[in-house]
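Good morning N.,

You mentioned wanting to compare the apo and holo forms, so I went ahead and generated the holo version with 4-fluoro-L-phenylalanine. This is what I fed in:
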Amino acid sequence: MAKNDLSKRDGFTSKFGIIAAATGSAIGLGNIWKFPYIAGENGGGAFIIIYLVFIILIGVPVMMSEFIIGRKAKQNVFGAFKQLTSHGFWKIIGIMGVLAAFLILSFYGTVASWTIEYLILAFKNSFSGKSADELATMFDTFSQGAIKPVIWQILFMALTAYIVIGGIKKGIEKYTKILMPMLLVIIIYLDITAITLKGGVEGFRFLFYPNFSLITSESIIDALGHAFFTLSLGMGVLITYASYFQKDTNITNTSISVAGADTIIALLAGLAIFPAVFAFNAEPAAGPGLVFMTLPNIFELMPGGYIFSILFFLLLAVAALTSSISIMEVVVAFVSEEKNISRKKATIFTAIAITITGILCTLSIGPLSHIKIAEYNIFDIFDILASNILLPLGGMLISIFIGWKMKKHIITDELSNYGTIQLKFVKLFIFLVRYLAPIAISFVFVHGLWDILIN
Ligand code: PFF
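and this is what came out, ligand included:
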């Protein structure tokens, strides 16, 4: 038996489990850490509307496309395109996916290490009695250091690798079912406390009042890139997960549920953060540290804040873990399949390599912050390359594959579960994947590349 025999991969035990795993991949640091900070940098309301339009018109159809490909082929991203087409060109989706996964997990590990530190600080009750300025300084001092962030990053990557080696599906299924709803409850509690803050209304307004004059072409690129990032699209994660879908999984409904849950968590996170930003006179465009600087202010004020701060950072770390597992899986599947080495060796090799590039990202906040291309440090460059270029490009190719290459009857078979459910939006779906998604994404892609070249 080949070392990487596909039949040996463990499967999901329930329909809910698969959806939980896809949701677990989608909901992560992207929702709670990245969404608020890029919404803040891009002026709030108008950016959010553009982001929502991208989620609905491009994100959901591309997600459906990944699900169709994965369930039809029943393989990871490489095997899938090998099976569905004889043309070698489509392999490029897998290769770009591996590169994107590598870059994303590098900076994801940096932010995950911040989460671990904040979990420890929450345990030690270190936020208590600190002013907003002191909390901001606390974040800067820690994140610009060299030792602690790197140690936490190594720990996080080791944990991710350990779960990936040990059979990820059962673990993910067991934990996401309980932990994701818990995360939702805590965020709602944070929201309630945040909105009642003095100045809270201003945050609400920032989040929902669209001021389109603040939108630049870069904001549009950020919005599309983030739609892909937050839904885990464009690099084959959801193709792999869909290979475990059951015959009766409803692809359209699942896509809408995953995208809906993901969007709700992001908006609720924004609703907790921006009222606090304004109430405590913080800067909405504070960048990647935004969440870590603002939320502790709210914990200090809310009843039971000590316990909730611990729970929040614990759940955030878990949400990061369920996403990072899915990212590492893409690289591991590639390494073990292409090099025909065991899953365990492939994971260890992958984890070590990503930890090394990840440490560069972590150090680029502090000791290596002088290394820049234009105004961007290594951390930003990895993010821009992956989120704004590789993921949209991968998504564009996936939608072209479904819109132009896949036989129509396969699409209708997959969407209707071989005629057992009524087809509702097939024409609209085909239009979106054939025309709208590729055109809109190529626009963003060209701009992304242009931005990098002229900067
Ligand atoms: N969707 C994850 C988040 O929002 O945190 C990040 C992510 C996971 C991106 C998996 C890409 C991916 F393939």
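The CA atoms of residues 138 and 146 lie 15 Å apart.

Happy to go through it together on a call whenever suits you.

Best,
F.
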